[in-house]
Structures are given as C-alpha cells and as structure tokens.
Design a protein that fits this description.
Strand 12 (243-250) and strand 13 (258-262) form a beta hairpin. The longest helix has 86 residues, at 5-90. The protein has a 7-stranded antiparallel β-sheet with strand order 5-4-1-2-3-7-6, covered by helices on one side. It contains 3 helices and 13 strands, in the order ααβββββββββββββα. By secondary structure, it is an alpha+beta fold.
C-alpha cells in the first residue's frame, strides 16, 4: 500500500532531524577534540615551564648547598684556629705553640760557635744572625730530630745582622707575622740554644716596640723573655704561633732586656739577600 503524503512528510522530517542531530554531534565532537588538543598543548607547555623552573631551583639549591659546605669548612677551620689561639692564650706554657714550632727551629753549629736559626720556607731556607757565622769555615744545622745537615751559605746583611742559608729536604716552615700589628704587653716565647742547651724556650712579653738597634734603625722589639748566648738567630713567637722577630742582642748588665728584629724587616732583608722572592709566608 503506497505511503500517504503525510506519512512521507513525517518520515522526511524525522530523517532530517536525525541528520541534523548527527551533524550537531559531529560539530560538538570536533569542538571537544579541538579543546582537548589545546588543553593538552597548554598542559605540555606548563609541564615544560615547571620542569625548567624546577631545574633552575635545583641548580640554585645545589649552589647553595655547595656554598654552605664551603662556609662550614671555613668556619670549622676558623674555629680550630681560634681554639688553638685561645688555648695558647689561656695556657701559661704556650704548649701547643711550642709543639708546633720546635720542628721548624734548628741549632746552627759552626767550627767556632753555635747559635739558633729557623726555617722560613718549605724547601730548606733558614735564617740566623750573621754574627753567629763570623769567622766560620763550616756551617751545619741540627734539626729537632738531632740530625746534622751541612748548610749552604746564601748571603747576609751586615746592617741588620741577618744571614740566609739553605739545607736540603722538605720542612714545615714558620710563618712570619705582621710586626706592625704587635702591641706592647703581648705574650711571646723565644726558642733557642742558650749556652748550648738546645731547643730551650723562655717566655715573656713585648716590653716596647720600634726600639733603635746598633744600626740606629727603629726596627726592634724589646722583650723580657730571657735571651742568652746561643739564642741569637732564634725566633720570637707570639701566641698565634707566628714569628714576629728574630732574637738579636741583649743589653749586658740588665735583667731580661733583649731585642729582636721585627718580622717585616726580616722578610724585606731576606728577599734582598736572596736577590729574588723566596716562598716566605707572611700573615
């Protein structure tokens, strides 16, 4: 039986409606897919941004950790130094300073006399008073382990009474302090070979600064640390373990009135004698 006209219209309307629905659904799905793609790109972009930001922060954190470690090491070293100085300051016998310093001091032995010297560089350069070597033909150094080593004479300065010599080997050198910072009343020790008594230590204070010496230069510390024949050329050391002078002479007839050439002059004169810059530590 043939479809009636109104039936055809109804079927056509339904078909059109279904087609429209399908088209709208397709458009909706396309729009949704586009939004999802855009959202994915935004998410990927945000992820990359977060990764870059995270890497930057990780690098900053690593740098800060390394800096903190460096600061901690520096603080630890500073603490150890301050603790050592505090122990030396609080201890009347300078035990820690003496223990560290003695291996860098030598007895200077010649065929006519004896004196003291101390190492100023790790490669064996040491200094003493020039008058200790007066008239000598052979010079040797006896170290703290009682080993005698022939010394090579490098040169001397008569005005400041300093002689530079060298022995073979590697050593822990004493450090020259800045004599401009020394104050009257500071505690000091003198290490030397008084009257042949090797590696003897006496303690005192800085009694005066910038005293005139035999050369009429105001370049000497006055100290009441006991100095006797054989102490010549030995180090005068402060509570920090630094050499602030080389023991040079005393006034006869007086009680404990000794003099030491200031360390800043030691460095200047020693480099002049060597005619080159020696590896002398000056702090």
């Amino acid at each position: 039986m043939p479809l009636q006209k109104h039936h055809k219209i109804m079927i056509g309307g339904i078909s059109s409606f279904v087609v429209i629905i399908l088209l709208l659904n397709s458009v909706f799905l396309y729009i949704l897919y586009g939004q999802l793609q855009l959202s994915n790109k935004n998410i990927e972009k945000e992820i990359l941004t977060l990764q870059a930001d995270t890497n930057t922060k990780l690098n900053e954190l690593t740098t800060r950790i390394l800096q903190t470690q460096t600061n901690l090491l520096s603080l630890n070293q500073s603490f150890k130094t301050e603790l050592k100085e505090l122990k030396s300051s609080a201890s009347a016998d300078f035990s820690s300073v003496i223990e560290d310093s003695l291996p860098s001091v030598v007895t200077v032995k010649t065929d006519v006399s004896q004196g003291t010297g101390f190492l100023i560089s790790s490669d064996g350069y040491f200094i003493t008073n020039a008058h200790v070597l007066s008239g000598a033909k052979i010079v040797s150094a006896i170290n703290y382990e009682q080993k005698e080593i022939i010394a090579d004479f490098i040169g001397y300065d008569a005005d400041f009474d300093i002689a530079l010599l060298k022995i073979s080997g590697n050593y822990d050198a004493l450090i020259l302090g800045n004599s401009d910072e020394v104050q009257v009343g500071e505690s000091v020790i003198a290490i030397g070979n008084p009257l042949g008594l090797q590696f003897s230590v006496s303690e005192g204070i800085i009694s005066a600064i910038n005293r005139a010496g035999p050369n009429e230069v105001n370049a000497y510390f006055q100290t009441d640390a006991a100095l006797n024949p054989g102490n010549s050329g030995g180090p005068l050391i402060n509570k920090k373990g630094k050499v602030i002078g080389i023991n040079n002479f005393k006034i006869g007839g007086g009680e404990n009135i000794g003099f030491a050439l200031e360390s800043n002059y030691i460095r200047e004169i020693t480099n002049k004698i060597s005619q080159r810059e020696l590896n002398i530590t000056l702090i």
